[in-house]
């Protein structure tokens, strides 16, 4: 009985290039008690693997968080699998806006302490006491009357390429940091109406409960996050007050909501760009935005420094990336060049 993927990344990529299966990318989550996460995980893996589903799923005693793609031909069977688990019945599924590119190469299901790393001790507050949901129509009304404060509960690199107009954003890289920052960021708005939003809604479930516990009087959040908002405004023929792209945590990297390009190349700082790339230096692997010219010059490295480091002996590369910040590495490189 195979409970894990055994193929290499190279094999999986090769398979994806010849795979003509039409797939639907979806995300879904639920805060629900799962008494035996490991047994639950193994059972779910076998059933989804048999349907050729691919994706990344986290399971904990507090619930489940999933992003995946499903063969269209197996969609009904997939829904039946979810309904066969009492904890997952009638699950709300958040379908992707577009299917350009391969979202996932394999099925990975992991048991974790939490389905989103938030750094909170849930015993101090009630995580189920969440804020009210708002839908796309409500969002557009609240943005236009300018009395509601919108708070982006996503990482800085996500907000950089797409966000709601005039939303409060945070230059952080983890959800744990967001929860430690949002209270100060929105402190002067404790008695005002606040609407939180994130990619698919899961971070805002916990964040809205936390903010209520911390004394915010009127906290709401967008049901299904930016993914649902973008899909609903198209269905209802409404204008989009979210501009740019919605970052997604799969192989596609982002979904275009509007044609606006909000970010600029991180290397030259001159040209508009909103395409994230991982630095090809395996020890860096930094997620950066680069214009076509700069990516050609650096050969898809986040800087000429990272490209140069890649020519050094492996042990020196490891030393440089483990010891010191980027500025210190730059000093070392300058010394080596002299």
What does this structure look like?
- There is one protein chain.
- The chain is of the alpha/beta class and 338 residues long.
- The chain folds into three domains: 9-111, Alpha-Beta Plaits, CATH 3.30.70; 122-236, Rhodanese-like domain (Oxidized Rhodanese, domain 1), CATH 3.40.250; 276-337, no CATH class.
- The chain contains twelve helices and 14 strands.
- Strand 9, helix 7 (202-213) and strand 10 form a beta-alpha-beta unit.
- It is globular, with a radius of gyration of 22 Å.
Topology:
Elements: H1 9-18, E1 23-31, H2 37-49, E2 54-60, E3 63-71, H3 75-83, E4 94-95, E5 107-111, E6 132-134, H4 136-145, E7 149-152, H5 156-161, E8 162-164, H6 175-185, E9 193-197, H7 202-213, E10 218-222, H8 225-236, E11 242-247, E12 254-256, E13 276-278, E14 287-289, H9 292-297, H10 304-309, H11 314-322, H12 326-337
Parallel strand pairs: 2-5, 6-10, 7-9, 9-10
Antiparallel strand pairs: 1-3, 1-4, 2-3, 8-11, 11-12, 13-14
The percent range for strand residues is 15-25%
CATH topology term of the largest domain = Oxidized Rhodanese, domain 1
Quickly give the CATH architecture of the largest domain: 3-Layer(aba) Sandwich
Order of helices and strands: HEHEEHEEEHEHEHEHEHEEEEHHHH
Number of helices: 12
Structural class: alpha/beta
């Amino acid at each position: 009985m195979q409970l894990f993927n055994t193929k290499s990344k190279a094999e999986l990529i090769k398979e994806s290039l010849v795979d003509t299966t039409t797939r639907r990318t979806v995300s879904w989550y639920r805060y629900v008690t799962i008494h035996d996460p490991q047994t639950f995980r193994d059972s779910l893996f076998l059933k989804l693997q048999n349907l050729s589903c691919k994706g990344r799923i986290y399971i904990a005693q507090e619930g489940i968080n999933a992003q995946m793609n499903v063969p269209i031909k197996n969609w009904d069977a997939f829904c039946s699998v979810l309904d066969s688990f009492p904890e997952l019945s009638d699950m709300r599924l958040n379908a992707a806006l577009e299917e350009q590119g391969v979202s996932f190469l394999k099925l990975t299901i992991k048991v974790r302490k939490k389905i989103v790393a938030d750094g909170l001790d849930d015993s101090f507050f009630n995580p189920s006491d969440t804020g009210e949901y708002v839908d796309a129509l409500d969002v557009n009304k609240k943005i236009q009357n300018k009395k509601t404060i919108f708070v982006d509960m996503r990482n800085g690199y996500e907000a950089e390429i797409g966000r709601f107009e005039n939303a409060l954003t945070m230059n952080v890289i983890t959800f744990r940091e967001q929860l430690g920052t949002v209270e100060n960021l929105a402190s002067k708005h404790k008695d005002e109406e606040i609407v939180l939003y994130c990619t698919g809604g899961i971070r805002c479930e916990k964040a809205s409960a936390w903010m209520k516990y911390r004394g915010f009087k009127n906290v709401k959040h967008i049901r299904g996050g930016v993914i649902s908002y973008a899909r609903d405004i198209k269905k209802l023929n409404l204008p989009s007050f979210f501009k740019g792209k919605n970052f997604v945590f799969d192989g596609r990297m982002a979904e275009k909501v509007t044609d606006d390009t909000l970010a600029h190349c991180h290397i030259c700082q001159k040209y508009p760009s909103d395409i994230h790339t991982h630095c090809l230096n395996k020890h860096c692997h930094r997620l950066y935005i680069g214009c076509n010219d700069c990516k050609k010059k650096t050969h898809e490295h986040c800087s000429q420094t990272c490209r140069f480091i890649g020519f050094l002996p492996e042990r020196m590369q490891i030393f440089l990336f483990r010891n010191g910040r980027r500025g210190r590495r730059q000093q070392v490189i300058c010394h080596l060049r002299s």
